[in-house]
Structure formats: C-alpha cells, structure tokens
Amino acid sequence: MSEQKFRARSSAAVLVLMRGQPASHSEVLLIERSDTVKTHKGQVAFPGGGVEAEDENDPGRTAIRECFEEVGVLPAQVKLLKTLPPLPTLSSDFFVVPVLAQLVGADPELKLDPNEVAYAEWVSVEALLKTKKTENGFPVFDWTGADQKHRKVWGLTAIILDLIFSL
Fold first, then answer.
1. What integer pLDDT is reported at residue 40 of this predicted model?
2. What is the pLDDT of residues 63-79, one digit of tens each?
3. For 4-25, b where at least 16 C-beta lie within 10 A, e where not — what string?
C-alpha cells in the first residue's frame, strides 16, 4: 500500500472491501447511510469517514477503523491492497481517499451502528456491472438488496466503483 498522507481537516477515507475470487465473481460491501448522520443521509456508500488523530494521518487506518465502527468488520479481517488518489466531493469540503481491500478469513457477522448505517450488504460486482448506466455524464448503478428495497448507487460511490471496475 502506498504511503499517501492527507490532511485531517478536509479528508476522509472509504474502504472498498471485496470478498471472493476472481474479481468478476466477487462482491463489494455497500452500506446505506442512516437518516441521522450529518451528511449524505440515506445514500449508498462504502464504510468510511473522516480522519481522526488516532489514525496517524493514514487513510488505510481511517478506512479500517470506520468500517469496524460502522459494520463491525474486524481489522484483522481486512487486507489492504491499494490506495487510490484523493477524490473531491461536490457536496462537501472533503477529499475522499478510496482504500481497496480484500476480506480475509471467515465472513464477518455485520453489526451495524444504527446511528450511522441503516443497511449493509455484500453486493455482486457482476450484478452491479449489469445495471451500469450514465446520467448527466456520471456513472450510476442499481442495487436491489436482500430486503427487496431498490437502491441507486450514484455520486462519488458510483464514480469510485466505475474507476475500480475499469481497472
């Protein structure tokens, strides 16, 4: 993983956590943010959030800590693969660092923090790719969860997915 650093006041990291092999048959962990969070209420996202002092200015640490806090995936179950360059958000003053990772070991029981996460699920990469479309020049994906609720993946989350899928 690169030694990329970022500023605490304006930076966040998200964990793009994959499970399964090969890549075309893998799944990615997506969450639906709760209606009680300050920003991006109800939106589909990756686990993640703002950097804190304990993260030592390391996006990988931030992403792993946030994933554990939000959905209960233990840090020992995460193998960091690659850190992508920071991407700006259009709706807030943050630069978001996507951190790619692979789940190792047994599947974790997802334990959601209801203050931050309303729903979480492992979503098939293949299924997401089948739904890809473009709206206003940006990628969009559709996802119907196991709860049968239709969700739209858009914004920075969709941009990150599209970037990763194009690799």
1. 64
2. 999 999 999 999 999 99
3. bebeeeebbbbbbbbbeeeeee
Per CATH, the number for 8-166 is: 3.90.79.10
Q: What is the pTM of this model?
A: 0.89
Kindly report, residue by residue over 156-165, the tens digit of the pLDDT. 999 999 999 8
Which helix (H) or strand (E) covers residue 159, if one does?
A: helix 155-166
Beta carbons within 10 angstroms of residue 74's beta carbon: 11
Those residues of the chain that have pLDDT short of 70 are 1-10, 23-24, 37-42
User: Could you tell me the sign of the dihedral formed by the alpha carbons of 147, 141, 10, 79, in that order?
Assistant: positive
Report the alpha-carbon distance of residue 13 to residue 87 in Å, rounded: 10
Rounded Cα gap, residues 39 and 54, in angstroms: 22
Q: Are strands 133-135 and 27-33 parallel, antiparallel or unpaired?
A: unpaired
What 3-state DSSP class applies to 6? coil
Domain ranges of the chain: 8-166
